[in-house]
Amino acid sequence: MEVNEALIRFYQYLAVERGVEPLTIIDYQQDMKMFFKRFPEKKDTSDLHPSDVGDFMRVESEKGYSSATILRRLSSTRSFYQFLSSEGLIDEDVPDYEGPRSSHKLPIVLSKEEVDALLEAPDMSNDGGIRDRAMLEVMYASGLRVSELCSLKLGEVNLINHLLTIYGKGNKQRSVPLSSFAGDYLQKYLDGPRARNKGRSSEYVFLNRNGKPISRVYFFTQIKKYAKKAGIETPISPHTLRHCFATHLLENGADLRSVQEMLGHSKIATTQIYTHVSSKRIMSAYDLYSKRK
Predict the structure, then answer these.
(1) Same domain for 120 and 218?
(2) Per the domain annotation, does 66 fall within a domain?
(3) Which of 73, 133, 216, 265 is flagged as catalytic?
(4) Which residue from 22, 160, 225, 230 has the least number of CB within 10 angstroms?
């Protein structure tokens, strides 16, 4: 069987049998696209072998990708090969590969001035700019993961009570407050560009010009563009706004448990990293202050 046909069956299996969300399937597609970019000679399922999974992981490591990226691509590739094995398209079972350990580097956090410059970067004179400003404002005001932002549905937004109902990892539900400031930009987008969009009947909040849900890849590209426009030299991603949300809350006196709940962390230890970021930023400011005296 040709690889392209096998991939189509795999994506159908994810959607129909496993009930995977469309936006998550896009992530699988991106990972498999990268896999076959690394191994262009593999055109047929007869060319595929379970050892390819380990080879792919080693290649990605040599390319210098982060542990998180390698682990995600490893998971996607293993799922595809396990599907092929269950369908009898490859003869061997896929062995368990131990991926790289996740690093525990402190997350990058922008100053409040840098965040302001980033949020103000979109051009509000066009529909795409209004949508992107709303996405940036909502992400910073609520600390959502990029997947949660892109998969946000209209029925999960309550602008009257300023609340978002979020279904995070493991489909766990949580309520996240949304500031009235961010809510105003979201309302402006809903009443304007989205109401004019060809996909206005879609259940998803943020749509591209073709009426489809915004992809995380697109949003990643836009973040990079707006960071450059804002003069931010630090390499950032959509997740940076989540880091900023948590750190700035803690710096302003929010308690750790509340931040944990808003972020949707199952363990408070995961949230505690932001106390280290916050302390580091405070000490840096203190050192600067001391030198000026």
Answers:
(1) yes
(2) yes
(3) 265
(4) 160
CA angle 114, 181, 271 (to 5 degrees): 60
Please give the Cα distance from 99 to 67 (Å, whole number): 8
Tokens in use for 114? 């840098």
Same-domain status, 271 and 188? yes
Low-confidence ranges of the chain (pLDDT < 50): 100, 103, 281-293
Judge whether 242 lies within some domain.
yes
The residue segments making up the domain with residue 64 are 3-86
Give the total number of structural domains in the chain.
2
Condensed to tens digits (0 to 9), the pLDDT of residues 242-251 reads 888 888 888 7
What is this structure's pTM?
A: 0.61
Task: Note the pLDDT of residue 252.
Answer: 76
| pLDDT value of residue 93 | 65
Q: Is 274 a catalytic residue?
A: yes
